[in-house]
Amino acid sequence: MKAKTKLIHGIHIGDPLTGAVTVPIYQTSTYRQEGVGSHKGYEYSRTGNPTRAALEELMAVLEEGHAGFAFSSGMAAITAVMMLFSNGDHIILTDDVYGGTYRIMSKVLNRFGLEHTFVDTTKLEDIRAAIRPNTKAIYIETPTNPLLKVTDIAEAAKLAQEHDLLTIVDNTFMTSYFQSPISLGADIVLHSATKYLGGHSDVVAGVVVVNTEELAQRIHFIQNATGGVLGAQDSWLLMRGLKTLGIRMEEHERNARAIVEFLQSHPKVKNIYYPGLLTHPNYETAKRQATGFGAIVSFDVDSENTLEQLMRKLKYFTLAESLGAVESLISVPAKMTHASIPAQRREELGITDTLIRISIGIEDHEDLIEDLTQALQ
Ligand SMILES: *Cc1c(COP(=O)(O)O)cnc(C)c1O
């Protein structure tokens, strides 16, 4: 089955009871038992819900994993994965991970004795050098935000296997449509489904997919024990979004290519960060391990003046956090998502005060380019 068909037929569709073509929304917290302990597989909706179960099964198929789990947000999914570890364990993470991941590692889980080291995971030697006797996992986000650094998943997973570590990949930016970390050797894939998987800026959700029955049992135990599950309505919305993931990603990327070309020719635009550019330092890796380059693009403009003017004059790019939706969004990492990072560290990383990140939507790219042209004038 090819990728777009899988999004529609990856799991058996419909409702056997009525013939309804879509999965019903089972808006129920509990289930009647025939006798004590005798039930149809569902007892209580934190433990399991048929609408959520359909989404979880679909996500396992899409990520080529063994089992999927849906959470109330990307951060709830990440938290559940981190609950696999114990006091005294050590995790190696990509140095420019999502801000929320940085926050939970350095401000919450550290209080429970979970140790961490942030390294540039695009450099295999840096990962190797960070491995300690108590290291349990390598956590990769690729490409990263906002500089789109790409880590070689297969290489990192091989190193992890040699040291008996788990490989965990945040696949939010590429999605299961463009990148399949489990087939590259990862053990666990997770998503902020709030972004491309949902795709319409209308649901906050998270997903975890694992590659073995043993990990599936452990994550299900944690999901049920900690309780950050996705509700039935949101599970249904996410499934609706997923059906068009393929056509959306293709269109997002087509637009991204056109806009990158435009930006390259603009005198007020300086550095452009996009893994699909031949000049991107990780272009070869990006090309090898994914079937697309995505639609998140960052670039520097020539001055803070230009930046302010751009923000004021753009019509089709909404100034907002988040990404991966049908509508184009724009943000200023140094002032928004990455404001909590000290200025000097930001400068070292390349997150300058004139850096702009755009999440390119699925509008007609001619309109988006016209909008950028007038705003940069
Ligand atoms: C948004 C995001 C998260 C967090 O997900 P929420 O759904 O906002 O909790 C995690 N990782 C990445 C890469 C993200 O973009």
TrEMBL record:
Keywords of the record: Pyridoxal phosphate
Cofactor(s), names only, from the UniProt record: pyridoxal 5'-phosphate
Pfam family, one: Cys_Met_Meta_PP
InterPro entries per record: Cys/Met-Metab_PyrdxlP-dep_enz, Cys_met_metab_PP, PyrdxlP-dep_Trfase, PyrdxlP-dep_Trfase_major, PyrdxlP-dep_Trfase_small
Highest taxon of the lineage: Bacteria
Entry's family note: Belongs to the trans-sulfuration enzymes family.
Alphabetized PANTHER family for the sequence: CYSTATHIONINE GAMMA-LYASE, TRANS-SULFURATION ENZYME FAMILY MEMBER
NCBIfam families, per the entry: PRK07671.1 (NF005810)
Name of the protein this chain belongs to: Bifunctional cystathionine gamma-lyase/homocysteine desulfhydrase
